[in-house]
């Protein structure tokens, strides 16, 4: 990567997330399925790392629920991230939420 | 899943439902067909577990009618749920409804 | 189905219909073709059983004309129904209609 | 069909037409091609039998020009009709038209 | 065709054109390619015979430029015509045009 | 072509261009690739010959940048032209442009 | 290319970028993968060379993040560039950005 450190900004409705390490699911046979190669139609959680100025649904550090199939990936400073759009988020897990649903991550 | 309990909130028009156990249909040969693997084009009922702030059509605990084909699934605290959007709901069964249609679940 | 009787309400533009028994057409060879397995592109009549609050085109008890191909089906209290949307209705047969077209069902 | 005579009304933009008997085209070899099985991309004429309240382009008895491919058909009192939508009509032949185009059916 | 002469009117944005006889192009091998079976993507000229009341781009007698592929055809009084929509016209050749482009048909 | 010279006018957003002779690209093996049969996804330059009254992006004589794949062609007075729409133009090269980009054709 | 130097202007929302030389990624086996032939779904960075008057998200010299698959390419003065549209940009790296995300290129 380029030496002089250029700060990166997400545009508009983009949400950059990092797959949770323990988000790997164990297939029934115990084989580790990395989050991004999850069964299609199976939603997964990831942590918000950066987001565009138009994003309202979540904040940096929140966990968000999305479908991992057919996703853009990007590598920044050696780390792999997934590029999402706000409308692709189904749910958010965060201390800020009142616990109305009784569901916890 | 992560230990510290983060309350989960559904976004916008999302409706999280749990398939009714007895919603499994018996194929003519008596084989149990799990709700989610229902014949295409066959609508099924499920119970609302959580919903986004924009949802008007139903409330938590209601039974809703939807098509099970091509659905997103998510596992929370070991339970399997189905992620829907309000516009995909065809009907609602709830004590709140006046019994105008004469149809009961 | 669940024992405590929950009244069912159709949502928005949904129209629940029941295929007319005698709506089965006899193929030229006299074989009974059940309404729902009608030749594609062939419209059939059915009776309105329930409808959402936004439906204006018909009322419960009217006969409506629609295309049976690629329809959602639902079973309520052991009866099979077809789930339609108002925009899929081509015509209505009802005593309320003046007999302008000279066509009768 | 059901005995008590229910008057039929077309909805919105629907136009019910009856193929003209003589509208059958003779293929070059003299074989009779029924109107509805016309060569694709070949427009045909038919007579308006009934129309929804939103239809402005024609009136009952007019001849209308449309593409016969991929059409809905319906049988009423033993007669076969074709169900069209107003936007699918290309031209109208009627005494009401001034003869501006110099074209006559 | 039916005997009593019903004047024909085009609807809305329809433009009825007649392929120019000499518009046939000679393939390199001298074989006559009728205008309507022109190579795809090759535009052709034809003469306006009739048009709907919403058409502004041309007048009866003008030459218009369009793509002949995948067109509706109609036969009126034994003549073959092509049915177009105004938005499918690319250019018009007419005495009314000032000769700004320096291009002539 | 027809003898009496009818001036041709482009309609609406159409832009008629003539491929630049030297716009042919030499494939690595030195084989001449005519502009119109350029590699897909490779943009080419051409000169504006005529344009509809709604076109703002360029003027007659400008060079415009567009994708040559899947284009309409038309022959006028023995010359071959390409028919474009304004929205398909990516860039314009013209003396009128200030040289802000530092890029020259 | 043509001798008289015509200044080139991008239109509307176009963004012309030049792939960063070091943007080539080494496949695990050390084989150099040119930026434009990047694995699908893998976003890459490039430098903005020119942009249309409607572009707000970036400025000439910024680094922008986009998906390299299925892109238009253009050659100007012997250099290869990629033609993008503003809405296809996911993120921008530039000194102008405050370092809110903590991510640097």
Which helices and strands occur, and which strands form pairs?
The structure is a homoheptamer of 105-residue chains.
Chain A: E1 8-10, E2 14-19, E3 25-26, E4 32-33, E5 44-51, E6 63-66, E7 72-76, E8 79-85, E9 91-93
Antiparallel strand pairs in A: 2-5, 2-8, 3-4, 5-6, 6-9, 7-8
GO molecular function, one term (chains A, B, C, D, E, F, G): protein folding chaperone
Keywords (chains A, B, C, D, E, F, G): Chaperone
Subunit structure (chains A, B, C, D, E, F, G): Heptamer of 7 subunits arranged in a ring.
Shape of chain A: globular
At the first level of CATH, what is the class of chain A? Mainly Beta
Strand content of chain A: 35-45%
Largest beta sheet: strand ordering of chain A? 7-8-2-5-6-9
Key features?
10 Kd Chaperonin, Protein Cpn10, Chain O, globular, mainly beta, 9 strands, homoheptamer, 105 residues, 6-stranded antiparallel beta sheet, two-stranded antiparallel sheet
What would your notes on this structure say?
The structure is a homoheptamer of 105-residue chains. In chain A, the strands form 2 sheets. A 6-stranded antiparallel beta sheet of chain A has the order 7-8-2-5-6-9, with no helix packed on it. Chain A has a two-stranded antiparallel sheet with strand order 3-4. The mean pLDDT of chain A is 83. Chain A has one domain (14-93): GroES chaperonin (10 Kd Chaperonin, Protein Cpn10, Chain O). The first copy, chain A, has strands spanning 8-10, 14-19, 25-26, 32-33, 44-51, 63-66, 72-76, 79-85, 91-93. The first copy, chain A, has 105 residues and is mainly beta. Chain A is globular. The interface between A and B is medium-sized, with 25 and 24 residues.
């Amino acid at each position: 990567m380029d030496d002089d450190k250029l700060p990166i900004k997400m545009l508009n409705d983009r949400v950059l997330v990092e797959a949770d390490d323990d988000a790997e699911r164990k297939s029934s046979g115990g084989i580790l399925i990395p989050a991004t190669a999850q069964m299609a139609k199976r939603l997964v959680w990831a942590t918000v790392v950066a987001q565009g100025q138009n994003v309202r649904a979540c904040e940096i550090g929140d966990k968000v629920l999305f479908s991992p199939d057919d996703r853009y990936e990007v590598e920044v400073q050696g780390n792999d991230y997934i590029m999402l759009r706000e409308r692709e988020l189904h749910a958010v897990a965060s201390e800020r939420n009142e616990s109305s649903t009784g569901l916890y991550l």
